[in-house]
Design a protein that fits this description.
Layout lengths: L15 H22 L1 E3 L5 E3 L3 H8 L1 H31 L5 H15 L2 H11 L6 H8 L10 H28 L4 H9 L4 H29 L3 H6 L11 H11 L3 H36 L1
Antiparallel strand pairs: 1-2
Helix pairs in contact: 1-12, 2-12, 3-7, 3-9, 4-7, 7-9, 9-12, 11-12
Length: 294
């Protein structure tokens, strides 16, 4: 028997504290940055409205364009390595048993290390005079020196990021693989499916959701990377490894150009949102088309 009860909105009061915290910690600072981005701030008491001048100046700045290109190249390079490698590691893990727990704990260790410590570890590890990696490569006759060779600096940064974050992709992929019912593998074996067919038609549908999360997390984090390259290379040699976050920090803290730095921050934020939005919508559209064909 259906009863007509009045709709009770009091449940929304339970999330009101969360909304207030989010407004205070995210929305209000963002609006402050947007406000600064349209002003020329001489000091705390002297400021002048300049409209979109800082935005135009930032988008035409060759240093910004160069840093943006390096940022995109770095982000997509590490994603191209970490996603397939993480899936490969996850597929190689045993599904259950004592070794599974041990290996999962070992995989999680790099994720527990603070970012500045990761940079320090690799700064020492890759040194050409005392570092195990640097000395070993030099002993092989490769003349490795990441402090003076831009290519070596880039390879060291990518290797450091892969070592630090591949575990995240592996753990997420392992969680997706464990959700595959054993009956699916048994059916695939009875049908004589190859390993590639098992991966493509049995495992990938279960990995789709976690891989979207993994790519979005890694894309956002790699696009905002600051501490590790700052500690490892300091943006050098020259400006070879100066990314957007380092350029922004120099502008805001080193030069105290609050107006241009605020405009830079807004553009930076919008670029990250744009990339994530494009990726998410492309993945979702592909999934919808696949379901429609099915």
């Amino acid at each position: 028997m259906a009863t007509n009860k009045p709709y009770d909105n009091r449940a929304w009061l339970g999330v009101l504290p969360v909304l207030l915290i989010v407004a205070f910690s995210a929305v209000i600072p963002l609006m402050t940055v947007v406000n600064y981005s349209v002003q020329d701030i001489l000091d705390f008491n002297s400021r002048f409205y300049v409209g979109l001048d800082w935005y135009r100046e930032t988008l035409q700045d060759p240093r910004f364009i160069d840093a943006f290109g390096r940022q995109v190249l770095f982000s997509f390079s590490v994603l191209a390595i970490e996603i397939p490698l993480g899936i490969l590691v996850a597929r190689g893990l045993p599904k259950s048993g004592v070794w599974t727990s041990i290996l999962l704990i070992l995989l999680a260790v790099p994720l527990l290390i603070p970012w500045n410590v990761v940079g320090t570890i690799w700064q020492i590890y890759a040194r050409s005079d005392i570092g195990l990696l640097g000395v070993g490569l030099n002993e092989l006759g490769l003349a490795f020196n990441y402090t003076s060779n831009p290519t070596h600096a880039w390879l060291t940064l990518i290797a450091m990021d892969v070592w630090h974050w591949t575990s995240l992709v592996a753990l997420l992929s392992f969680a997706g693989l464990t959700s595959v019912p054993p009956a699916y593998y048994q059916a695939a074996e009875l049908d004589g499916a190859s390993k590639w067919q098992v991966f493509r038609y049995v495992e990938m549908p279960r990995l789709g959701g976690v891989l979207v999360i993994a790519v979005l997390l890694r894309l956002m984090d790699s696009f905002m990377i600051y501490t590790e390259p700052f500690v490892l290379t300091g943006g050098g040699p020259g400006n070879a490894t100066t990314f957007l976050s380092q350029y922004l920090a120099t502008m805001a803290v080193g030069q105290f150009d609050l107006g241009p730095a605020a405009a830079f921050s807004v553009i930076y934020f919008l670029f990250i949102l744009l990339f994530c939005w494009i990726f998410y919508n492309s993945v979702m559209s592909d999934d919808n088309e696949a379901q429609h064909h099915d």
